Amino acid sequence: MSGAGEPSAQVTVELSGAADDAGGVFSVLGAAFASDRDAGAAPRPGPADGPTVWSGVFDTARPAGGGPGGAPSLSGPVTAAVQGGYVAVDQVVTVLSAAFAVAQEGSASGDQEKDVTLRLESR
Predict the structure, then answer these.
(1) Which of 43, 55, 81, 112 has the smallest set of CB atoms within 10 Å of its CB?
(2) CA 11 from centroid of its chain's CA atoms
(3) Separation between Cα atoms, residue 14 and residue 67, nearest integer Å
């Protein structure tokens, strides 16, 4: 991300699942919000013997200007850990819910930010 948005508008998203699926989720978020991820940068598969997590930071105060495209099909469930300010996390969850079937698996709230763990699947 070039420039700094309000810290409460920045959301960290950590994804686990297949690399192609993580790329699809990041493309949905990247169409909605400015990100620290390079456009078109696809996550690379990790080692076969352990879990891999991909992360990105999205600035909900800086819309990317992309329109809602078709939701990518996921080959399996993707776990998304979303952390940031209350309003910003809700905005990210709204975008994800428009593209995928979303189930909340957990959450934790603090004074100024919250963490939400989601399970994303194709509709």
Answers:
(1) 112
(2) 8
(3) 23
